[in-house]
Amino acid sequence: DLDDLDTEELLINLAERSLVQLDQKPDADGKVRRRFRLHDLLHDYAARIAGELRATHQKLLDAYRQRCPDGWHSGPNDGYFLQNVCQHLATAAGNWDEPVELLCDLRFVEARCRVGQVFELIADYRLARKNLPEAQEDLRQEQAQQDRVRRWTTEVVQYAWQWSDRRERLGRGEPVTAQEPQPPEPVPTCEMWSDERVQA
Length: 200
Known about the structure:
Number of helices: 9
């Protein structure tokens, strides 16, 4: 229930007491943007006294909703809102339905891209996908595939070391009785090139 002037005064007061860190950075247009961060301990304390987490996120969204006259895509570029609205929506609702709908709104995508948040937007898509029940099987398969490729890569490196060791010993004239190392069986998604294709 503080107005802008009282809020600014309170934040400066807290910063002078090292209870928050206040950053002031000028935008490209010269307007100064102020951001503040809580120390982790103070953040934990504030979260504890704020009450139920979902209700706290909802309060923040309600406050921002007043600054979004045409919907979430018209929200302020204040260095926080656009980057975090999806996470707040998901936490407040307890599911990712509304954030997914927002991420499919081309006006929101355009707003994020216009302020240079392409990579942050991609991170939101990844996070949404990670939390969607219908994507879990695909994610499990992708993880299993990545694990197989990592194991195969390790085996290929070991195979290369064995050949290197064998060549060095033969080069020094030492007898080598062990069988020639065999290349590991590739994972199905890796295409092995023929000698002709390598030469080409």
